[in-house]
Amino acid sequence: MKQFFGKLLKNNNGLKLLSFILAFIIWITIINVIDPSDTTVFTGINVNVLNTEVLTEQGYIHEIVEGNVISITVTGPKTVLDSLSASDFYATADLAAINPTDTYVPITVVCTKSGVASAGLKITPRTERIKVSISNRETRTVDVELKLVGEPESGYTVGDTSISPTSIKLTGASETLDQVVSAVAEYDVEGATMDIADTISIHLYDEDGMEINTSGITLSRDAIRVKIPILILKTVPVNFVTSGALKEGYRVSSIESTINEVTVAGTVTSLSSLSSVDVPADAIDVTDLDADTTYSIRLSHYLPSSVKILSEVLAEVTVHVEEVTEVVLELPTTNITIENASKDCSYAFTRDSISITFKGLKEDIDNISVNNIKASVDVQSVSTNGTRTFTLDVENIGECTPVGEYAVGVTVTRR
Asked: Which of residues 202, 228, 254 is at a domain's end?
């Protein structure tokens, strides 16, 4: 009997198989009792996109439209699941074999925690594919605009600003770049009293003035260096003079300008020696004029380069010209003053009056009379009897001047 069972155990392969199966069932039963299978959902897992250079090398650019963050369902031993978190899983979407016309890319998820790979986990992404948008990849150059907000302290203003660089390159999908209308760097100068040097960020805007999300755009520079001079203000008068000779018989009656003073800006040094804006005579040449004439003068041309004029405009300078007229006034010689007379002599004019011609603008000529004339002779060098001729000194009457020279006879008698 003993030999019979010995042969049976040695030669019956079916019995061996049956024993193995029974042992496995018993093991599985024990495992499920001790560490039962369970299912857990993990959320917030980022999908890593691999081999993006494949598209870049072909002149394309991609954007993930959907599925960049997913949830997964994991089935496995409860003790293993309890030891896991979302950070233990690594999700990928491989663009190595994608075509530019493809829209979806499969997602693969693996568990990266050490010692868990052989635990028989079943990982199922709830989102099986990411949705991608593939577009032509372009690079464009756009100018950077510096936008200042606020105002410096009272008595100060902003000078000529400078930025570096003045333009940047944008790389991205053509339809995304088409939205970009401006690249702007903004700086607040409110209350500033000193020069500013700083680094400021660049923002992109569409045609409606809305800021564009740059996540899909690569900027060659995302910030610029800016220099903003803060200058002192000063108000100074403007002076005008003329050059050249008017047509004979005419005189400048007045000079009228639309701007008689200007506000300028500069450093303390540049403004210390500036008391006025002096327009040179050759800027207003009146040669041979016989009528009113207006000149357009750009005042900034006559300022130092270190000084800035605010609200640059042309000064319209009108030279008013009037014809010179003449009037003859009969001056009684009794109105002539004898200067340096000797107390030992008496003096008598040889004539009762003398005709004196004055010339000037009509409005001035109309307002003068013989009573306005101041005339004199100097007899200092004469102290002997006789009649002599002396030069008559006639003063101007306002803007009216005497025409020619005049002489008068005086009889000198010693007492």
From this structure: 228
